[in-house]
Write a structure and sequence with these properties.
alpha/beta; UDP N-Acetylglucosamine Acyltransferase, domain 1; four-stranded parallel sheet; 4 helices; about 25% helix
Length: about 170
């Protein structure tokens, strides 16, 4: 189960209430920072932009590949550990606007996590240390530490214990 705060709205769908939930100028600033970072090939510059202007928590040596899209409205709800890799064109969402409500939730990605290209991470999930997320995965629930997951919907392909057995040399 994802850990999100639910906020109900009256009248039109919740996206019509967007600037009641987040200031317009915050979204505009975040958009410019994210678009700059998406195209820069300089990893330390990306991390600096995200930390300085978007208030994301990013561990040392974490790498964002080209075209990664962090949440434009609530990037401060994203926390990523050290030495992780976020693959090409991955989207990390900390919000979701629905018809009668919107939801907000922190995304916590552990240390030494690999997120494959074109994945989408939904709000309110935690990805444990050492986990591997296969390319094009919809991460809609927590991922245990050390697990290998993939698919849409996401499924555990190997647990941490199974991964450890696979990495042992054959006798």
């Amino acid at each position: 189960m994802r850990k999100t705060e639910r906020h109900f709205v009256d009248g039109p769908n919740s996206l019509w209430h967007i600037y009641k939930t987040v200031p317009f100028w915050k979204v505009a600033k975040n958009f410019l920072i994210i678009q700059t970072a998406r195209y820069t090939p300089f990893l330390p510059l990306k991390n600096w932009l995200y930390k300085k202007f978007l208030h994301m928590e990013i561990g040392e040596h974490t790498s964002f590949a080209l075209m990664v899209m962090p949440d434009v409205m609530f990037p401060e709800k994203i926390k990523i550990g050290r030495n992780s890799v976020i693959g090409y064109n991955t989207t990390i969402l900390a919000h979701e606007y629905l018809i009668k409500e919107y939801r907000l939730g922190e995304v916590i990605i552990g240390d030494e996590v690999l997120i494959g290209a074109n994945s989408t991470i939904l709000p309110g999930v935690e990805i444990g240390d050492g986990a591997i997320v296969s390319a094009a995965t919809l991460v809609h629930k927590d991922v245990p530490s050390g697990a290998f997951v993939g698919g849409n919907p996401m499924k555990i392909i190997y647990t941490a214990e199974q991964m450890a057995l696979r990495q042992q040399p054959e006798s």
